[in-house]
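Quick question, first post here. What does this chain look like in 3D?
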Amino acid sequence: MSPHLEIALFTPHSALPAQNSGASRLELCRSRSSDGLTPLLSSLTTLRPVITIPIHVMIRPHSLSFHYSDSDFILMKNGILEFKDNGADGFVFGILDEGNRVDVERCRELVKLAGGTKCTFHRAFDTVIRERGVGEGMEELEKIIECGFTSVLTSGGGMNAWEGRGVIKKLVAKATGRIEILVGGGVRANNLAELKGDIGNVGVGWHTSAVMDGGEEASEDEVRALRKMVDSF
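> Answer (accepted):
Ran it through. Tokens below.
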């Protein structure tokens, strides 16, 4: 079975074209300029009748940091319940403590609230690696696994996946198939083969917005090219 090709959707208009061009999973969010925030519920309810591949919803109330107040956390819990009741197949979130380590207690609570749907720890993990170092990042990966996440989205702490590919390779080896390492950050058809060559293709998935024009819409041609490459590995 080919690895996942997950397309980040900043607008619901990209969903059907992405699905038809070969996406195997969608990450539904909004605001590309903020690197993704919790979408409107109406985005999911509009898409659910026409999208047959899994839709994972980002739960991120603001872009100020990955530290959340009690009121933020209530919004996150309510968001998971609301989106789950309306057909979300999974969730994408991540919470750090003030020391930029994984907030195990809160993350575990949200995973439990998700009720068995798949959960991805998002690129808050890259902040862990940048702030705490690669060694501690490996230790924090264990905490993410213990919380019950099924994937971790990462650029290896780099500004993009190409820059962080060496660390990503170490994460894949550390994970040993216990969690999907979802490679993201500037993944495009023109660098995917080289990324795969450096990182490998076992225990990984590939994540991209497939935006090619600086806007928010995924390019059908880019998704199609990525799908063809992933299937050829």
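Residues 70-85 form the longest helix (16 residues).
The two ends are 10 Å apart (CA to CA).
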